[in-house]
Amino acid sequence: MDISEKKRALRDEYIRKAAALPESYTGPTDKQICGAVIATGEYQRAETVFCFVGRSGEINTRPIIEDALRLGKRLCVPKCVANGVMEARRIKSLDELVPAKFGLLEPADFSETVLPFEIDFAVIPCVTCNFLGHRLGFGGGYYDRYLPEGGFFSCMICRRQLICEEIPMDDHDIIPTLLITEGA
Hints:
alpha/beta, seven-stranded mixed beta sheet, Rossmann fold, two-stranded antiparallel sheet, 184 residues, single chain
């Protein structure tokens, strides 16, 4: 089995595991994880925050988004603009998000683009990862292409029950700066 096949099999396994987690676990742990992100000094000092909008099966990032908006931080979220290509787009309210492909909520086409070098702090999703920061995403390569464009602090978030010791890595796979999980 080559590395792509290993990644695909692991991705499928952990997407199923995530879907099977009960709300009695995901609800409280999502709050703990988001609270830990908000408590980091890097987030507190950041003027411009880039955060994915969690969808079903992912961590609910609304507490981070709402906190950034409440504090008056410049908040941007991902918008897929081509296959494997995303941009950071500014929002000033959750009401500015519209349904997009793959069950994502994204900013409208006319939203302001925020360039990677303008970002101070980014919250990064994963399907699974390990404690070394090796990340397995959803397979589109969006973050692996985007993260090297900026010099910002990147914080990956993952539920502890979705941590996997062995993550197959390619040379182009990016390791975020920090991993936050519940209880950490």
